[in-house]
Amino acid sequence: MAIAEDTVREALKQVIDPELFVNIVDLGLIYEIKVVENDEGKSDVQVDMTMTSPACPAAPQLLGQSKDFVGQLEEVAEVDVRLVMTPPWTPDRMTEDARDQLGIF
């Protein structure tokens, strides 16, 4: 049985933007999560994510940590984290929790 998308999303919440100190899920950086069950009964996961700006210096760190945290889930076999820039990120994608943490009302 394939892992639930919500489980992957929870793992991604462990990745904290080092400049904003908010997790990447609440920042709205996660665009899509695809989960496919493989022949061994484990899940292959693809995550499409973006950055707050195309020149984000933390991009390699955030991409690597995303892959690592999802890959640590017992039900996961393969992880592919793709950086996408379309559509561009905007602050509208943030959750209310992120807005509160950053003092944006």
Write the layout of secondary structure elements.
Blueprint: H1 5-12, E1 30-37, E2 43-49, H2 59-71, E3 76-83, H3 96-102
Parallel strand pairs: 2-3
Antiparallel strand pairs: 1-2
3D architecture notes:
With 105 residues, this protein is an alpha+beta fold. The protein has one domain: Fe-S cluster assembly (FSCA) (GMP Synthetase, Chain A, domain 3). It has a three-stranded mixed β-sheet with strand order 1-2-3, covered by helices on one side. Helix 2 links the parallel strand 2 and strand 3. The longest helix is centred in the middle third of the chain and has 13 residues. The model has no long low-confidence stretch (mean pLDDT 95).
| Fraction of residues in H or I helices | 25-40%
Query: Could you name the ranges where pLDDT drops below 50 across 5 or more consecutive residues?
Result: none
- How do the SSEs run, as a string of H and E? HEEHEH
> Which strand order spans the largest sheet, edge to edge or round the barrel?
1-2-3
According to CATH, what is the class?
Alpha Beta
Total number of β-strand segments?
3
What is the global morphology?
elongated
Kindly identify the CATH topology: GMP Synthetase, Chain A, domain 3
Let me know the average pLDDT.
95
What is the architecture at the second tier of CATH? 2-Layer Sandwich
